[in-house]
Amino acid sequence: MAENIALIEPHKIHPNEENPRIIFREDELLALEDSIKRQGILVPLTVFADGKNYTILDGERRWRCASKLGLSQVPAIVQPKPDKLQNIMMMFAIHKTRRDWDPLPTAQKLQQLENELERRYSSKPTEDALASAASITRGRCGDIAVSLACRKTCNPNSWRN
User: Fold this and answer.
1) CB-based burial, 118-134: b 16+ in 10 Å, e otherwise
2) pLDDT digits over 20-62, tens only?
3) pTM of the prediction?
4) Which of 3, 9, 17, 60 does the annotation list as catalytic?
5) Distances in Å between the alpha carbon of 114 and those of 20, 71, 76, 97, 120?
6) 116 in catalytic set
């Protein structure tokens, strides 16, 4: 293993609460688990130190599978600990090419990013600024905002006949 890659016990690693991905599909996890059984973890996780433990920036599915398989160590690149705003921005930047995130959790995390930017800079960010901070296109930012707006205006109780 390269010098910048640490081998970390999976029980010392924890999910990142700022990760917009909160739904993990069982069939995808099973396929990844099978791959890890056959070939090991080919791409190290990316984590940051948080006291004596670590928090995931990238690789939560690999970590989940490694834990389930009972691996004693996983390869990980350890990054400096970000502040809350940097953490949210990094989660979007690391995963910006992924389209498999579920829209509602992603919209909620984008709303949290907007709130953190407003708190830090004392003004609400423009859609361009928000898209830039999230490392997504302005169009994708708008699509995600529509998902959040739909959630706020839809009342599941009104769906009853």
Assistant:
1) eeeeeeebeeebbbebb
2) 787 888 999 999 999 999 999 999 999 999 999 999 999 999 9
3) 0.73
4) 60
5) 14, 38, 30, 20, 10
6) no
For residue 123, what is the DSSP state?
A: S
Task: Name the strand (E) or helix (H) holding 5.
Answer: strand 5-8
> What does the DSSP assignment read for 46-114?
EEEEETTEEEEEE-HHHHHHHHHHT-S-EEEEEEPPP-HHHHHHHHHHHTTT---S-HHHHHHHHHHHH
pLDDT-based confidence at residue 94 (cuts at 50, 70, 90) = confident
Angle ∠(97,136,110) on CA atoms, nearest 5: 110
Tell me if 37 sits within 8 A of 77, measured CB to CB.
no
